[in-house]
């Protein structure tokens, strides 16, 4: 907006474009990432970046990373999407409407309910609405506005949630009562091991390590879940816990779902512990019968400190001399029978479970105190964003990309969506690059053959792995830093995010190439997905949308399948709110209900389309404003808005002043602030702690103020600025209300 205003002031015309490829003669404006401008003389084009025309210093907004997710769920809100209103239930989003009524102009979110009834929701109440997201793909029916079904559903889910919270709390209490081994505090050898870590720990890593060590030193068995994206440093945390157990003379079992992961962990543990007196062994199908027999005997005698393996280590012939710690990687990937075996191994032993499926922070906070969770959300320092490019399928480009990666000693993933196309593609690639070593991996291969190919790639016996999206999760190969995704238009956004995440695990710059047959041959939805992946960086909302859907899967894994029906009934965010309240009630914490003040003042207060043209962005700002908790947060949002869209128009200034008044009302437990017949009226809650003595003094000093028969405080208005007058009165009331 600032740029368009600037160009208009110079008297030039311009075109707004969605892509640099759509350029036309003259000035074209489009959004993208460009650190600085440059000239392209051959094409007679000049590219100007933001820093080339901006003169004022950019305001940096600091906010918690967890603040983004609930907001960004509105990023892709479109007409027809389902919304959940806390009081009225599930309805369909119709649009954002600007309405003038009784001299008041404002924006309203329009939600349609069963039978075509519509709810016009003032934007200052947007925090009462969530975008409907269920864990499964079930589409719920709309509720009737004013009907009883929603309240009944909410009550049923509330009971189920209370039961879940109670069960979790009972399990937690039972575990605290169980006797276990209390590990000794870390000694000088442990800190020597810590010092040998070649990278600085992230704050999340450090916090998780401290939480695990504290658990291990307690005299009852640990059962902690460590969640975090792949490559965020969970393995180092697990290795430190294992080393601590070994220092106390205990054995450690590391259980993983696949043979290839067992081998990978074995290599990682061995490399990390090579300078310390720790014996490590791996028990998997890659070991001969003779080797397995030898490992089992040494394990029984206590000669092996750390054993890493698949469900093979759950079998009856595996006997430990003194097992002290069990580390489980991706527990949800084990079958029911394997989990039953696990229970026998778990009794009175410290257990650390690792999950690469991230979970929502809101769930983490909801379960605090009834489930031991550690969260790693920050990537390691020096991690660079993956350079992502969109291109047509081009043999010369493919040849150049693969050769460049192999020449720098790296490896390449070449992903194709369909198994049947892989043999032909393999022949084409081998002919194109005869000197390159190719491997093939897909789900229709035998498990043993697939694992052998993966292991060859892991050991760098293969340069390029031609595969399906079977590599979407599991492997961590820091040496693979280029991924080529053929027919990228056939993958979903979450799949593309996951696939791209296979690379970029080291200090090297990583590259992702999305190959498509051409713009005319791919659907509009696919174009939108690809544009999202190209445009969005880690700090933007689209990235978080893909991540949000993945986190819901993580939530399902923690809460269990029995809860997915309840989540489908009320939506994920509503379910979490109920869970949080249930946990607080069980823990005996006070649940003071926040009041929702209603402000009706005859002023224009909204975000006009001329200021923020994108409807979704307006909704996101409205929702963030409705969730503001204090003055500081409100000021930050004001700065951000000015920084992004320029000086606030009068109607937006009014909106911020209204919200400022709303914060006062919430603090003083004032339920309503409105004007009528030349009077400003204030309605107090029954529980508002008013000092009678101070109120008498307050009124005696202001003879024109009065209480009407309804108990409302009335203040006469004499052609004054209503907002200024209301603020002046509320500030004066501070002396009367004991908060």
TrEMBL record:
This is Transcription-repair-coupling factor. Residues 397-551 form the Helicase C-terminal domain. Residues 215-376 form the Helicase ATP-binding domain. Keywords: ATP-binding, Cytoplasm, DNA damage, DNA repair, DNA-binding, Helicase, Hydrolase, Nucleotide-binding. It is found in: Cytoplasm. GO terms for molecular function: ATP binding; damaged DNA binding; DNA helicase activity; hydrolase activity. HAMAP family: TRCF. SMART domains: CarD_TRCF, DEXDc, HELICc, TRCF. GO terms for cellular component: cytoplasm. PANTHER family: ATP-DEPENDENT DNA HELICASE HOMOLOG RECG, CHLOROPLASTIC. Gene3D superfamilies: 2.40.10.170, P-loop containing nucleotide triphosphate hydrolases (3.40.50.300), Transcription-repair-coupling factor, D7 domain (3.90.1150.50). It comes from Desulfofervidus auxilii. The keyword Cytoplasm applies. One of its GO terms (biological process) is DNA repair. The keyword ATP-binding applies. Its main location: cytoplasm. In the C-terminal section; belongs to the helicase family. RecG subfamily. InterPro entries: CarD-like/TRCF_RID (IPR003711), CarD-like/TRCF_RID_sf (IPR036101), DEAD/DEAH_box_helicase_dom (IPR011545), Helicase_ATP-bd (IPR014001), Helicase_C-like (IPR001650), Mfd (IPR004576), P-loop_NTPase (IPR027417), RecG/Mfd (IPR047112).
